[in-house]
Write a structure and sequence with these properties.
By secondary structure, this protein is an alpha/beta fold. The chain has 2 domains: 3-14 and 23-167 and 178-297 and 501-513, Aldehyde Dehydrogenase, Chain A, domain 1 (3-Layer(aba) Sandwich); 301-480, Aldehyde Dehydrogenase, Chain A, domain 2 (3-Layer(aba) Sandwich). 40% of the residues lie in helices and 20% in strands. Bound molecules: nicotinamide-adenine-dinucleotide (NAD).
């Protein structure tokens, strides 16, 4: 580790997750109402595309709207098309020459400055999240908190990575293992954690010395544009992050396929992740490397409710996991697998609990909000029709008319077969399938019977059952006697098995390795210094 990196790391407080805001506190409530009013006055503005520090306009525009009242425009954005990919990648390529040589200390400090600004403007970011993607106040705060956590965590991890120990020193040599940046990357986030995941993937890439083309989701470009403003405010050099809102199939696929894009950090659906994986695998003319893909995809997450569990906790955990942010989390519980002995009691309690969920405008802090878009709304409604033929409706089952918003009632369908479509396919909305199981063996078999493997939970009072689930429940993030949503940076490194992705473990100690390549430099004692050798090599990347 360089002395400066060691000194900075030593001077920082240990990483600690950002505390959640308590909205029962009158001061916090007032601050959120004020932020909604202030940000509400800034809606509908036009944002630029930013390439190499230049602000650009395109003929085509992307209009982002409030899913709770689609007549309200949140932001108007430039629409990057495939032909803009070349300039964006070129700007990132040019910036890489300088940024890859900026000491890690400066890169880490930059993340910490951004983190401080996000914290300072926390309520405003919450308000943007409420307006653009329909998060209630606590969900918005969790997204902002996770953003701060990613920035703080990756700043520290980058400093640690700089000081990684070389396992063996050969006699007569000085041996050094370094992790160097990859090059230009494409960062392609989803809309559902439009601040945390977007900022997290971007921060991880740049703190390691890479430069990126950031293509936010067309459903949430304004939040990304507001984040981009912070990067500019703290003095990120031009071209390190190139902000290019665009459609996936046009601009997105063009940057993925570009021969100079060395890696793709993607979070989104299985279908798109696989498409990116396939495109990235095909070497293009002029391409001199194998592209790396970091792909975090969908889920069909299950909670097992064993007969010996605390039933009230299980009901609460299932309801919160299934209907928090209207089921639009990759970690959301969409299957409850319930022991036959407690099945009827569980269903009765769950029905009563779900009946308490109030649906309305997230700006007014209703627990249940809209789904993100008309497309999502139509998809969820079509699954409700399928659901009616695959089980018995316990709650919901229909749209809710309000301000033209994309509201769907929290829906619970019981007596669903494990292989039913609503028990196998990711719906990404407030729809829960309840499945009966007759043993823990069968419950685990059902839990593992989808192509996904992202999160899961089990409620049981038995140590042996919990231990067994720890071994046999095939998911990247397993929770025992708690809900399956709400992963915390550092405590629950996040990423899934199977078709849920490459298990990249965002917020974990290995994550930054994905954005680097290891380089071993062996120096015969008496030759050029290790530092000089490393610098010469870096020039040639
Ligand atoms: P999506 O796959 O539709 O889009 C994700 C991103 O990919 C967007 O920016 C989109 O514009 C872009 N894209 C679309 N087609 C593309 C293409 N052909 N080439 C390049 N880019 C393209 O997903 P979404 O609707 O934004 O998000 C919801 C999905 O994300 C769900 O499946 C959810 O489970 C998943 N998700 C996973 C995680 C995780 O950590 N595993 C976290 C959040 C969301």
């Amino acid at each position: 580790m360089t002395t400066a990196a060691a000194a900075l790391l030593a001077s920082l407080p240990s990483f600690k997750n950002e505390e959640f805001l308590d909205f029962t506190d009158a001061a916090n409530r007032r601050a959120m109402e004020e932020a909604l009013a202030t940000v509400g006055g800034r809606l509908g503005r036009e944002y630029d595309m930013v390439v190499g520090g230049r602000r650009l306009k395109t003929d085509g525009k992307i209009t982002s709207v409030n899913p709770a009242r689609p007549a309200q425009v949140i932001g108007v954005h430039q629409r990057a098309e495939a032909e803009h990919a070349e300039a964006a990648v070129e700007a990132a390529r040019v910036a890489f020459a300088g940024w890859s040589r900026v000491p890690v200390v400066e890169r880490a400090e930059l993340l910490l400055k951004v983190s401080a600004l996000v914290r300072e403007r926390k309520f405003a970011f919450c308000a943007w999240l409420t307006f653009e993607v329909g998060k209630n106040w606590a969900e918005a705060d969790a997204d902002v908190g996770e953003t701060i956590d990613f920035l703080e965590f990756y700043a520290r991890e980058a400093l640690k990575l700089d000081g990684v120990a070389t396992p063996i020193q050969m006699p007569g040599e000085r041996n050094r293992l370094r992790y160097v940046p990859l090059g230009v990357g494409a960062v392609i986030p989803p809309w559902n954690f439009p601040l945390a995941i977007m900022a997290g993937m971007t921060a991880a890439a740049i703190v390691c010395g890479n430069t990126v083309v950031l293509k936010p989701s067309v459903d949430a470009p304004t939040i990304a544009a507001e984040f981009m403003k912070l990067l500019e405010e703290v003095g990120l050099p031009d071209g390190v992050v190139n902000f290019c809102p665009g459609e996936g199939p046009g601009f997105g696929s063009a940057i993925v396929a570009h021969p100079e894009v060395r890696f793709i950090a993607f979070t989104g659906s299985k279908a798109v992740g696989l498409e990116i994986h396939e495109s990235a695998a095909k070497a293009k003319p002029g391409q001199i490397f194998i592209k790396r893909t970091i792909l975090e995809m969908g889920g069909k997450d299950a909670i097992i409710v064993a007969a010996d569990c605390d039933l009230d906790s299980a009901v609460e955990g299932v309801a919160a996991s299934a209907f928090g942010f209207s089921g639009q989390k990759c970690s959301a519980c969409s299957r409850a697998i319930v022991a036959a002995e407690v099945y009827d009691a569980f269903c009765e309690k769950l029905q009563a609990r779900v009946d308490t969920i109030k649906v309305g405008d997230p700006a007014d802090n209703f627990y249940g909000g809209p789904v993100i878009s008309d497309k999502a709304y139509q998809r969820v409604l079509s699954y409700l029709e399928i659901a009616k033929g695959e089980g018995r409706l316990l709650n919901g089952g229909s749209a809710i008319e309000k301000d033209g918003g994309y509201y769907v009632a929290p829906t619970v369908v019981v007596d669903v077969a494990p292989n039913a479509r609503i028990a196998q396919e990711e719906i990404f909305g407030p729809v829960l399938a309840v499945i009966k199981s007759t043993s823990i063996d069968q419950a685990l078999q059902i839990a593992n019977s989808t192509e996904y493997g992202l999160t899961g939970a089990i409620y049981s009072g038995s140590r042996a059952t919990l231990d067994r689930a720890s071994e046999e429940f095939q998911v990247g993030n397993l929770y025992l006697n708690r809900k399956c949503t709400g992963a915390m940076v550092g405590a629950h490194p996040f990423g899934g098995f199977n078709m849920s992705g490459t298990d990249s473990k965002a917020g974990g100690p290995d994550y930054l390795l994905l954005f680097t390549q290891g380089k071993s430099v062996a120096e015969k004692v008496g030759g050029a210094t290790v530092k000089e050798a490393m610098e010469e090599e870096l020039m040639g990347i």
